[in-house]
Amino acid sequence: MSIKWGFRVPYINHLMKTYVLLLGFYLLATNGFASDKTTIRIGVQPTGTLAWELSVLQTEDNAKNLDFNIETHPIATSEAGKIALQSGAVDVIVSDWIWVSKARSEGNDFTFYPYSTTSGSLIVPESSPILTIKDLKGKRLGIAGGELDKNWLLLQTLAQQAQLDLNTSVEKVFGAPPLINEQLKQGRVDAALNYWHYGAKLEAQGYRQVIDGKGLLKGLGIPENVPALGYVFKQSWATGHKKGVDSFFQASKKAKQLLCASEPDWKKIIPLIQADDMATQTKLRQRYCEGEVTRWGAPEQQAAERIYTLLRKVSNNLLTGKSEHLQPGTFWSQD
């Protein structure tokens, strides 16, 4: 006995096509059209301020409104971030435009978009007789970042204008940022030139700021607030993902504004700050918010060229490379 099915081949084909079409709509719906979003792989130091901002962006309420996806990759140091970017392990890191220009002169495709104008500071005990750079003569100076630290180079340049050679008139002590802070606390150095967040932690404990990175530039005749740090990425990658990249920059700026203006948002990221006392939290927030980039145009980029010239001269090309000028394309154009 044979059974005859009542379905014809064309009808079965129609059912299959309908099933495939419905399945496609289902997958798009359940994935929120995620395939249309740019995924941005970001190298992040867990204790850095970028981690603060990304935690704001990735809250449930904010993430659903973003038209890009964030994929964070922990990095231990800024140098590790550069290696990750160069190897293609990440798309974006935070670094400086001096490094970008040098990399471009060597044939790399990196470019820079501003992130913060806050940089290092010169810190002394509250009762210290050191009131100006001239007062460093004969003192012990702790320096974070090594001989080619940009703040150290700029401090030397400003001192030279006052006929003071810091290389011969101070006792230099180089070390990692935490070590330099400890050296100052223990009285083994008279002053500390350190990264801004380490300086802020000292200020919260009663230490005094003599001058910061912006003050150094103003002393050198550069009044513009030139970003010290920025997002660094491949120009070719950004060109191919322009919508997502531009949206990320806008969202990042909004996240910074929320952290500076909204108490609930600020309180959410306090566990990332690694500071239990209110005084340190408050000072870190103040210095962080002072770094907001409010202007970024021709005047600031021309000022960057002047800073580049100063750093090139004082470092004898070691920091900048041999190029006499900032490389074209160092700064990302959103046009």
Automatic annotation (TrEMBL):
Top-rank lineage group of the source organism: Bacteria
InterPro entries, per the entry: SsuA/THI5
Start and end residues of each SsuA/THI5-like domain: 84-260
SUPFAM superfamilies named in the record: Periplasmic binding protein-like II (SSF53850)
Name of the protein described by the UniProt record: ABC transporter substrate-binding protein
